[in-house]
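notes to self, project folder thing:

trying the whole complex as one job this time. last attempt i did each chain seperately and stitching them together was a nightmare. two parts in total, labels are on each line so i dont mix them up again. if this works i'll redo the older ones the same way
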Amino acid sequence: MNELLAGVITGILFGFIMQKAQVIRYDRQLGALRLQDMTIVKFMLTTILIAMVGIYLLLDLGLIKLSIKPLILGGNILGGLIFGIGWGIVGYCPATAMGALGEGRYDSAFGLLGMIMGAGIFAEFYPMLKRTVLTWGDFGKITLPAALGMNHWLVIVILCAAFIGLFVWFEKKGL
Amino acid sequence: MNVFREKKWSPYAAGALAGILLVLSVFFTGKYFGASTTFVRAAGFVEQAVAPDKVAGMDYFIKEKVKVDWQFMFVIGVLLGSLASAWISKEKKAVAVPSMWEGRFGSSRMRRWITAFLGGIVVMFGARLADGCPSGHGLSGLAQIALSGYVSLICFFLGGVIIARMLYGGRKQP
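result (full assembly):
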C-alpha cells in the first residue's frame, strides 16, 4: 500500500481512538501531571501492554523488525525534563495537540505554532548539541532485556504484572 | 453504530485498540508511531520558503530530510480522526481556554494563547533533544522495551509533575 495513504489512515484511526478516550484534553493531561486523574496513563500503558506482546510475538516469528532509538543519557534525560516542563505549560504533547485542534480546542493551535518554532530553534543548536549533550552517556540501541541479560518474555511478564498492578491501584484510589 | 456515538470509551478499551493498531501498523508497513520529527519537517518547509539555501546546508534538516512522509501524514490523520470522532458524538465545539486553566489563571485568551505558544517551543526543543515524544519514546519505545523509551518517558513525567505543581500548587483544588 502507498506509504502516505497508510500514514493518514493509521493517523485517523489513532486520532479517533484518542478522542474517544478523552486523552487529548488539556484537563486530562494536567490531571495526570497533577497526579489527580490517571486517564492518559491508563490509556498509554494499555496501548504499550498490548503492543509489547504483539510486537515481540511477531518479532519471534521473524515477521517484523524493531526500530529502537539509542539510549543517550544526556539527550534522553535533559531533553526529557525540558519536554516535561513545556508539557506542563502547554498541556498538550505533539500528537495530542493535533488531536485537540481537531476536537475544536483551538488554544492548541498556538501550542502547535510554538512547536514548529521550537523545532526550528533546535535545528539551529543541533551542531553544537551533537558535539556535547548528545555524546554524554551513549549506550546505543539497547533494550531492557538485553541490558539485564534476561529472556524478553520474562521481562514482558514482569512488566505486564507491574502495569496491571498499577491499574488496580489507580482504580482503588479512584485516580 | 451506537458505540461510535458514545462520548467516552474506557481508557483501557481505547488503549487496547490503539495497541492493536500499533501492532498492525508495524506488521503491514513497518512503521512505529511517532510525531515530533514531523514538526522538524514542518519547520524545514517554513524556512525553505524564506531561505532555501540556508535549510539545504543545515545539519539537522539534512539528517531528518524535509519531506512529507508516513509520519507527516500520520500526524495530519490524528487531527482528522479526532475531528471525525467529535463530529459523530456531537461534541464539536470551539474551546478557546481549557476549563482547568480558566479555573486557575482566568479566562484571558491572550494569556492562555501566549503561554501555549511558549510552552510549545519548550516542548519541541525538549522532544528533539530527547529524540522523541510520548508517541515515539512513550508508546513505540516502551512497546519495544527500549531503555531510551523508559528513561525519556520517566523524565517527561518528572518534568511535567514538577511544573504542574509549581503552576497549580500541591493542594487538591475543589
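what i see at first glance: Chain B has ten helices and no strands.
need to look closer tmrw
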